[in-house]
Design goal:
The complex is a heterodimer.
Chain A lengths: L2 H22 L1 H28 L11 H37 L1 H6 L7 H28 L7 H29 L2 H6 L3 H4 L15 H9 L2 H13 L5 H25 L6
Chain B lengths: L5 E12 L2 E12 L3 E5 L6 H8 L7 E6 L2 E2 L4 H7 E4 L11 H11 L4 H14 L15 H13 L5 E5 L7 H16 L3 E6 L2 H7 L2 E6 L2 E6 L1 H8 L4 H9 L15 H4 L2
Parallel strand pairs in B: 3-8, 3-9, 6-7, 7-8
Antiparallel strand pairs in B: 1-2, 1-4, 4-5, 9-10
Classes of the chains: A mainly alpha, B alpha/beta.
Chain lengths: 269, 263
């Protein structure tokens, strides 16, 4: 076998290990999927009647079913983004657990493909992301979400969600390796679940105070959510699309380099 | 410098973490097919030594060849030749014993019937067949250590590093592990082990190196060292050569090598 097939084979071995972990630790997987579902229910049924009436162009009565339906349409892209973030968070926990248990030291003294441990985690997270989206999206449809996207729109939306997953997973792997303990690793990436609230995901940014609006308009989640919204509506995302892709590629590349660097210095204990 | 009769060759090795010098110039040679025991108290630099020789940490200065490969320039050659069982359990607790060993055969690119045979053979040899399909998290300390070592042996390394292999084990498990070390030696495997237990070095080692505060203060066969210091036991030797006892105090157990971790 060549170096490349060894690398692929070792990555698949590591992926198999990670998938077994997910199946044997179902409470974490369920929590990851349950979290965005709960937020969706909370925002649609508790806040939705009022929030929907306040959306731009909204002339519906406060507290009505129409408002809830409008708000469901408005926040579903943000909920999908939170689903991706939620899965990425778990990789920080998994990698921190690996690092503190000494098994990474074992892998590092073996003649295996260098990146395979991290690649295995990334592949595992992408599979889990796809599985989580396959639960959350139908759930939104069940509540009455009706996107107007054609084939191109769906391809764009799914592609962007997976690219976002790639970026956030590498970021969480780096955060997990930097954490030094499983406890820290389960807290330090939490900001990824909060940032979507400070974006255009739940309310239009121009309804926020000036300073906050500036942050919301310029943080990475806003172009990602706007692009997703456009794709799912079947419209063109325009410049937001390039910003979204650019942010994802930037975060993925920087985090990849950071994670690789941290991985070579891991020390159990 | 190196040839097929030398398993490990170290010259002038130093390592510091921040202002803390952990290794202050180590020279040693381990012939193929022998057991070398690095004996010393907590914080003496034993684990750092193993980490450098097993390519996990880079030394600040000095040369080291392991199985004929330079640890700095040819780490992959070293990794193909060695097996390492560290101080911290390096098993996957969410997997079963059998799955842990299967993980190792997969990573060693051994497949099919040969892989299955190797897994079953190691399970039997380490008395883990009955527990093979239980998650490793349910194993006792001794069983975890046995599984850890079995995983190290999957790739059939000719040179094995054991970092405090019996720390925390009960006397029965400890003797079982000694027996395994003797069997490996009979197969011609070279073993480099670290220990705080004088009895362990006395029982197993062809050569004992006394490591104290980052320096190798004495080296020889257990008999030579005892003769040199005029003592009955290696305890006497350690006391005579370093002015303090080697056996760690109980309360130090938790601070194991913490000094070495300061960076």
């Amino acid at each position: 076998m060549t170096t490349l097939t060894y690398a692929a084979s070792d990555s698949v071995t590591m992926l198999g290990r990670n998938l077994k972990h997910m199946l044997r630790y179902p409470s974490l997987t369920l929590m990851l999927i349950g979290q965005p579902v709960l937020i969706l229910l909370l925002f649609v049924y508790v806040f939705g009647g009022t929030m929907g009436a306040g959306l731009p162009g909204g002339s519906v009565a406060v507290g009505g079913a129409e408002g809830r339906a409008d708000y469901l349409d408005y926040i579903t892209p943000a909920i999908l983004v939170m689903t991706v973030a939620s899965v990425a968070l778990s990789t920080a926990i998994y990698i921190a657990k690996d690092a503190t248990e000494g098994i990474i030291d074992r892998f590092r003294t073996m003649p295996i493909a260098k990146g395979s441990v991290l690649t295995g985690h990334v592949l595992g997270a992408l599979i889990q992301t796809a599985a989580a989206l396959a639960v959350v999206l139908p759930f939104a449809l069940l509540l009455g979400y009706r996107p107007g996207a054609g084939v191109a729109g769906w391809v764009g939306a799914v592609g962007l969600l997976l690219l976002l997953g790639l970026a956030l997973t590498w970021l969480c792997l780096a955060l997990g390796l930097a954490a030094g303990s499983v406890e820290t690793a389960s807290n330090s990436p939490m900001f990824l679940m909060l940032l979507p609230f400070l974006s255009s995901g739940f309310v239009p940014t121009d309804s926020m105070p000036a300073g906050l609006a500036w942050i919301a308009e310029n943080q990475p989640f806003t172009p990602v959510i706007e692009t997703l919204r456009a794709c799912l509506d079947g419209t063109s995302p325009g410049a937001d699309g390039w910003w979204a892709i650019g942010w994802c590629v930037l975060v993925a590349t920087a985090s990849y380099l950071w994670a690789r660097r941290l991985f070579s210095k891991v020390r159990a204990g | 410098m190196s040839n097929h009769t030398t398993a490990i060759e170290v010259a002038g090795m130093t390592k510091s973490y921040a202002d803390n010098a952990v290794l202050r110039g180590i020279d040693l040679t381990v012939p193929v097919g022998t057991v070398y025991a690095l004996l010393g108290p907590n914080g003496a630099g034993k684990t750092t030594m193993v980490r450098i020789l097993s390519t996990l940490t880079a030394a600040d200065a000095g040369e080291a060849r392991v199985a004929g490969f330079d640890v700095r320039r040819e780490p992959d050659g070293v990794r193909r030749s060695i097996g390492v069982t560290g101080q911290f359990s390096a098993i996957d607790e969410l997997l079963t014993g059998r799955e842990n060993l299967k993980l190792m055969t997969d990573l060693a690119h051994v497949r099919g019937a040969e892989a299955r045979a190797r897994v079953e053979e190691l399970l039997a040899r380490f008395d883990l067949t009955d527990a093979a399909d239980r998650r490793a998290a349910t194993y006792s300390g001794g069983m975890k250590r046995r599984l850890d070592l079995a995983m190290t042996l999957v790739s059939r390394p000719r040179l094995i590093f054991l970092d405090e292999p019996t720390a925390g084990l009960d006397p029965r498990s400890r003797r079982g592990l000694w027996q395994i070390v003797r069997e490996l030696l009979a197969d011609g495997v070279t073993i480099f082990l670290t220990t705080q237990y004088l009895e362990e070095a006395d029982q197993l080692a062809d050569t004992v190196g006394l490591l104290d505060d980052g320096r190798l203060v004495a080296e020889g066969t257990p008999a030579e060292l005892k003769a040199q210091a005029g003592g009955e036991t290696l305890d006497d030797v350690f006391l005579a050569l370093t002015g303090h006892a080697a056996t760690p105090r109980k309360e130090d157990d938790e601070t194991d090598d913490e000094l070495e971790e300061i960076r």
